[in-house]
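Sample pair:
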Amino acid sequence: MSALIFFPLAAAALIALLPGDQKNAIRFATLTATLIVFALVLLGMVFPNSEVISFDIHEAGMQNVVSLPWIPSFNIDYFLGFDGISFPLVVLTALVSALAMGASWTIEKHVKGYCVLYLVLLGGMMGVFVSLDFFLFYIFWEVMLLPMYFLIGVWGGPRKEYAAIKFFLYTLFGSVLMLVAILMIYFSSDLRQLTPQQLVDSNVRLAGVELSGSPDEHLAAATKYHESIAKLETPVHTFNILALQQLGQHTEVFDSKLLFGKSLQWWAFVLLFIGFAIKVPSVPVHTWLPDAHVEAPTPISMILAGVLLKMGGYGIIRICYPICPDAGYDLAWVVCFIGVLSMIYGAFAALAQTDFKRMVAYSSVSHMGYVVLGLGVWSATVVGDPVSWNMGVKGALFQMIGHGISSAGMFFMVGVIYDRVHHRNLNEFGGLFGKMPIYTSMAIIVFFAGLGLPGLCGFIGEAFVVLSVWKFSATLAVAGAFVVILTAGYILWAVQRVYLGPEYKGPHEEAICEINLREMAIAVPLCVLAILFGVLPNTVFRYMDATVDAQVQDLATWTKETKIPRLQAERAAEEKTAAVAAPGLDEQAADVAAAEGDI
C-alpha cells in the first residue's frame, strides 16, 4: 500500500539525479515508474489472494489496511486502505497516469522538471484515495496542489500563469474550508462514545495493541481499550475517518447547535461540500476548470479530467454523507439542484464554444453534474426503497470511471490534432476523416462514449443516476434526461465540424498526417475500455457492489431508526406548542393532537 504512494516519490528523487540533457532516458524512466504502479494495482485485480496487494470483491470493508502511529499525541495515524469505493479509482488513477505519461513525449521544455513533478502528483493522487486518516487525507490533498500549479504554469499555453493562479486560488479556498470543517469535527469527536464493536469496525489503533487474530480477539482488545478510555475525564479525539463515520451515524456528538440554529454537523457538511464541489467542479465554483484545461498541456488535461475531478466526488461519498448524514438528508434538495444546474449549464456552455478543448472542458462540468446528482439523492429517497439509493450511488461511481476514460480520451484526441496544426478553432477544421481515417475512427468512439451512446462507457452511469432520481423528483429526473439531448448536440456538432466537414480550412494543412504508433498505444486502450465498460458494465460494478451495498444499508438503517423518529418528535413538539397557543384548546386536547400527529 505504501508503494502506491512512495514508489512514485522515490522514482522522482532518482530521476532528479539524472542529467537534464538525457531527455529520452528521463521519459522512459518516468513511464516505467508509472507502469510499475499500474502493474502493482493490476496484481490486486487479477490475483485477489496475492500476498503483495489484493482486493476481494466479496469483502465490503477496508482491505490491505496499514495502521501505524504517526503523531500519537493527537491520535494521528499513518492509516491506509481501500474498499469498493476507492479501489476502482485507484485503478483509474494508475491507468490514466501511465497513458498520460505516454502522451508526454511531445514535452520538450525542462523535461526533467516535468517528469519529477508528474511523479510527485501521482504519489499525491494515490495518497488521497487510500488515506483513512483525515489529517493524512488533507496532507495528500494539498500535496497535489503544488505540482499541478507548476505543470500548468510552466508547460501550459499563452495564458498559463493566469490559469495556474486561478486553479491554485480556487483549490486553496476549498482546502481552507475543508481544514475548518476537519478541525470542527476533530475537536467534537470522542472515541468514548463508540462501542467496542464499532471500534473494531473502524480499525481504531488500540493504544499499541495490534489487531491480529480472530474476530473474538479483535473484540476483546477493543473492549479492553474501551474500558481504559471510558475512565478518562476528557474526550478522546480522532482523525480516523471510519471512526468519524461511526460517530456521525450512531452518536449525537456532531449534533450540538453552532450558529444560526444550525448544528455543527450541518456546518461541517456545508464547508466540506463546498471544498469538494470546487474540485468536481460544480456550478458556480467551476470557472477555474475551462481555463486550466485550455492552458494545460494535453497529458495534464488528461490527468485533470480523468483523475482530479473524481476526487471531489470521492470526498462527498467517503466523507460528507457518512460523517454528516443528518445534514446530508436535510440538504438533499440543494445538492441535487446543484448537480442538475451543473449538468444543464455545462451542456449549454459547451454548445457555445468554438475552441475544441474548451468545449471538452465544459462537457466535464456537465458530466460530473451527474455524479453530484446521483450522490445527492442518496440519503433522501423513500426509506423503504433502498434500491433507488443503491442505483444512484453506483451510477455516480460508474459515471466517475466512465468519464475518466472518455474525457481522458477526448482531451488526448484534441491534443493529437493540436500537435499537428497548433490551433483548436472548431470553425477552421473539417475533412479530417479523409486525411486521418484511423485517428478519426478512434476519436468518434471516445466522443460517442462521452455522448452517452448505449454500448459505451458513458451510458450506464448517466442512465442509473436518472433512474434513481425519479422517486425523489420526477422534475429533476426529466431535466437530467433532457441534458442527454444537449450533450448529443455539442458532441455531434463538433464531430461534424472537425472530422466530417467538406475540407480543412485552417493553417498547417501540410502537417496533417495519420496517428503514429505511440499515439495508437494510448488511444487503443481507451477505446477498448470505453467499449468494454459499456458492453460489460459488471467489470466495474463487481468491484464496488459489496461496499456500496453495505454503506447504503447503513445509511438506510440510520434514516429509519434515527432520522425519521427525530423528525416525528420535532413535528409532534411543534404541533403541541401550536395547539397550546391556539385558543379553545386546553392542555389535554393539545396532548391528544400531538399524539395523533404522523406517528
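The chain is about 70% helix and 5% strand.
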